[in-house]
Structures are given as C-alpha cells and as structure tokens.
Amino acid sequence: MTDLIKQEQRDGVLTLTIDRPDKLNALTNAMYTRLADWIFAADEDDSIRVVILTGGPNCFTSGNDLVDFLQEPPTHLDSPAFRLMRAVTHLQKPLIAAVCGAAIGIGTTLLLHCDQVLVTRNAKLRMPFVNIGLCPEFGASLLLPRLLGQARAARLLLLGEGLNGDEAVAWGLANEAFDDGAQCLEAANKIAQRFLAMPQQSLRQSRQLMKQDGMAELQATLREENTLFIQRLNTDEAKSALNALLNRSTDKNPPKGNQP
After folding, report:
1. Which residues are in coiled coils (predicted)?
2. DSSP of 42-104, one letter per residue?
3. What is the tens place of the pLDDT at every residue in 44-73?
C-alpha cells in the first residue's frame, strides 16, 4: 500500500503524489497514514522547505476508498484521516496543491489549508457530505463561509454542488487554472522555486502571522466536526446512503468506489 503514495525530494521541495489511478486516487487508511507521516517528517526536516501535494496529471483524489472506509471507519480523533488533518494544519512550511481532475470530499476541503492551489480547467471540486448523511470536515464548516460567504458556502456544503477549475478560481478557492495537468504541475514547481528563493525565516514567520489568529478556533472546529462525523456514521440515514453508494460502485467493473 505504501507505493500508492509516491514521494520525491529534490532541492528543498518534497512532492507527494497520490498514485492509484485505477481507483481514481481513492484514499485508504494506510494512504492517509503515509501522507501524515511524510508531512510530519517534512516539518522537522530542515532540508525540506516546500511541500507539493498532487495526484498526478489526471486526477487529484476522488475521496475515501469506500470499501476501506466502511470496513475501518474513523472511530476516534486520532484516526488516520483526522491525523492527516492535524499534520496539514500544523505544517510550518508552504504547502502547494496541484489539482488535476477530480477533487472530491477531502480532496476539496484539504485545499482550504494550502498556501497556493493550482487547478486544471477540467477540475471537479465537490463536497457531497450531506448527500451521504455525513457532515463537513477539515474545518470546512468554519472556513468556507468566511471565504465565500454563507450563500455560496451553502451551495457547496449543503446542496453538494461542484465547481470546475475556472469557477474555483473565480470563487477564490484556487489561484490559477490551466489547460492540462502538465501545465498545472509545472506551475506548481515554479511557485515552489519562488518560495525557495525567499528568506526562509521571514517566509515562515509571515505565514505563521497569517494563520495564528484563527488556529485555536480552527482546531476546536476540527474536533467538533470530527466528533460529529464519527457519530453521523452510526446513523441510519448515513448507513443507508453509504451502502447505496457502495452498491452502485461495486456494480461497475472495476469498482472505483469513493465519495465521503
């Protein structure tokens, strides 16, 4: 399972690539654990100055692997997906997301914590939590209304509507949209080089100043969301919706199951 997350370190840049194309880069507990381990380690490694997170040129991530998710759902606040959230929100170094294609569920909420988000025009950002009987995660219930306003946030979080790459840029969820994955990945590396060329202590202190006022509130929201998320998994409506989704995905050949 560890080879489903590839890592490359070069000249101060750590690139983490979700590499499970046959499952649309759906994330398992083992993959969450691996991502969290590398991000925590990157924060302690002075040779790493910038982190790029991508799913390659065709798909970012379609969210949780549904089979793995239902077999081993999160049951406590240190579950693998929640641990990844902690790693990302505590990272002291610039984080760049190169989003090509689908970014479903945590694939979108993760972007709210990145310093730069680059997308392809055919990107599909969507957070279908309510549709499957769950609740928002990764601080989205706090951050999206502040970023977009209540009405737009409700379209994404309550109605589960999606955005393409150009719409994500227009709404302020991404910085720039590109025609294809190769351009998107190249742009991410160029921005990483810009970060590398900056005075590093000044960069990190400035980044900390930008984030510190809301950190306590964000961490409290994460705890509240994650606690409720665990509770929601045990409700009849969530079980019904998730099982229906699983049945639809397993009817396909091969299954590509993942949504939450």
Report:
1. none
2. HHH-TT--EEEEE-TTT-SB-SBBHHHHHHS---STTSHHHHHHHHHHH--S-EEEEE-SEEE
3. 999 999 999 999 999 999 999 999 999 999
CA angle 115, 118, 120 (to 5 degrees): 160
Q: Is the peptide bond before 260 cis (omega within 30 degrees of 0)?
A: no
- Cα angle at 27 between 26 and 28, to 5 degrees? 125
Q: Which domains does the chain have, with CATH numbers?
A: 2-250 (3.90.226.10)
Is residue 66 a contact partner of residue 28, using CB atoms and an 8 Å limit?
no
Distance CA 133, CA 34 (A): 28
Proportion of the chain in helix, strand, coil states, percent, rounded to 5: 55, 15, 30
Q: What is the pTM of this model?
A: 0.93
Phi, psi of 128 (to 5 degrees): -90, 40
